[in-house]
Design a protein that fits this description.
Bound molecules: zinc ion
CATH topology of the largest domain: Arc Repressor Mutant, subunit A
Mean pLDDT: 84
Number of domains: 4
CATH superfamily of the largest domain: ROS/MUCR transcriptional regulator protein
Oligomer: single chain
Low-confidence stretches: none
Largest sheet: 2 strands, antiparallel
Radius of gyration: 35 Å
CATH architecture of the largest domain: Orthogonal Bundle
């Protein structure tokens, strides 16, 4: 069989409920699957060979109607919006200015919340929020486990990766009251110096503890032989 020459011929060929395969003459509800499977001819090759527009489906009227109905059922506005979000992946979105079209914005937010629990990427605002929460009296662990604030892993990565952030973090930490540092089990150099100073004045452990607002145990740990040894190694 040679190619169709007029559109009327094509319409006549596609109008029935079953379509005849132009290669072998058997008839099917849809020819594309059959042509690929039985003859190794792809749908596009089949259409090109017989002069059918590549945008046409080579299937019977009933099948076409069923497919159209299914497509309508599947393509709700929500589904279309999510498809847009998936197609415009994050990288591509950055390239085109970082804005989803209006109808896809809700879907983008929904998908972001579903995949990583929040609507936008974490940035310096979140870092500042954690620092503010700790300054306000929370422990580091508590701040990282507060809803809306980033988790420990992200925070640690930020501190390690960026020297400026590390400096800001260390400065913030050293400025905290000893009691709060002790609550996070992270007493710094300032504490060690304060203890050493009071020891030199001959103060007792309980007195130093009361003076600095921490437990006696915390003071004793700083004065232990193991601690002095560790400090000596660090200073070297
Ligand atoms: Zn065939």
């Amino acid at each position: 069989m040679t190619a169709f020459e007029t559109s009327a011929e094509v319409e006549a060929y596609l109008s029935g409920d079953r379509i005849t395969c132009l290669i072998c003459g058997r008839s099917f509800r849809g020819v594309c699957h059959h042509a690929a499977k039985a003859h190794g001819v792809s749908a596009t090759e089949y259409k090109l060979r017989f002069g059918i527009a590549v945008t046409r489906g080579v299937c019977g009227a009933g099948t076409r109607a069923a497919m159209r109905a299914a497509q309508k059922r599947i393509c709700t506005p929500e589904v279309v919006a999510e498809r847009v979000v998936r197609l415009q992946g994050a990288r591509q979105l950055r390239r085109c200015g970082g804005e989803y079209p209006p109808y896809a914005r809700d879907a983008a937010a929904r998908m972001a919340i579903r995949s990583h629990g929040r609507e936008r990427k974490l940035d310096e605002r979140d870092f500042a929020a954690v620092v503010a929460a700790i300054r306000a009296g929370q422990t580091a662990w508590g701040a990282c486990h507060t809803a809306g604030l980033p988790g420990c892993a992200w925070l640690y990565q930020q501190i390690v990766a960026d020297p400026a952030r590390r400096a800001a973090w260390d400065a913030m930490w050293e400025s905290l009251p000893f009691k709060q540092q002790a609550a996070s089990k992270k007493l710094g150099r300032r504490f060690a110096d304060a203890v050493a100073e009071r020891r030199a004045l001959g103060m007792s452990y309980p007195k130093i503890a009361a003076d600095l607002g921490v437990s006696e145990y915390a003071v004793k740990c700083r004065c232990s032989r193991a601690y002095r040894k560790r400090k000596k190694n660090q200073d070297r």
